[in-house]
Amino acid sequence: MIAVRVALPDLVSNSYFPAIAAIELGFFAKQGMAASHQLIFPNYKAYEALHDGRVDFVAGPAHVVFRAFPQGRNARFLAALSQGMYWLLVMRAELAATPGDVNAVKGRTIGAAPLVNDGLKRLLIDAGLDLERDQVRIVGVPGTSEPGVSFGVAAAKALEDGKLDGFWANAMGAENAIRRGVGKVVLDVRRGLGPGAAFHYTMPVLATSTPVVARQPEMAAAAVRAIVSAQRALKADVALATKVGRALFPPAEAETIAAVVERDLPFYDATISPAAIAGLNRFAQAAGLLDQPVEYEALVASQFSQLWTC
Fold this sequence. Notes:
Blueprint: E1 2-8, H1 17-24, H2 27-30, E2 33-39, H3 43-51, E3 57-61, H4 65-68, E4 75-80, E5 88-92, E6 109-112, H5 117-126, E7 137-139, H6 151-160, E8 166-169, H7 171-179, E9 183-187, E10 204-209, H8 210-215, H9 217-236, H10 240-248, H11 251-264, H12 274-286, H13 296-299
Parallel strand pairs: 1-2, 1-3, 6-7, 6-8
Antiparallel strand pairs: 3-10, 4-10, 5-8, 5-9
């Protein structure tokens, strides 16, 4: 078997779960690869590891690739792990905030991860807010610099401890806050809570480098097949998520991951559409990550596109 390394910026979450499941459920192994995951936080450091050849793949946010690969040069997206921007805004339960109300952040302190925070900032700006005028403070989350810490889990704990008014993170963090009775979801653009244009700001992808595709195209194709197999298996039996969670997650998150993944299943589609890349380009330029748009074919390894629906 070929040994491959998959970097992820967050493990105990739903964000990159198809990649985690593809490893843990043996779909990489069925493709002839002994795959292992490597937690590298923050997200841009995972892409830096890919750029430097220290890992073979990254399961991460699409827009962050431009931090390590300027203008996307020598980066390739192999498949979408799911569709759309996948972070949610969770506010303290006692605040007078209603679903879809972007004004709920005015005068508040919101926790978000590096570069993940760009999604929230752009969403708020596009919705007509001025972060300085409206006194929106977007900060890091206490405790996330410790080795092995999951951002979403730490964010929910910080909210519970009163260190934040809200946080912008994955649905696992949201689920933790909701189940503890300390938070409620206010924005979730994949489900219509927030500006529709924000859906295509970014998406979770399986990325690699041009040298990997050039030297080992069969390995790249096999990785796509592993991801698609995992997405299909979870759609057929979401209880498999619990199996993965029990192997890798703390007990509480292990028992809730299936419920979180079940809500994500409609977005489990490996397709990377031109619309998704067009939205990504617009967002990355607005965030200062791109100087000019990157052509679809220059960023997406479309030679593997037939595998997205095989």
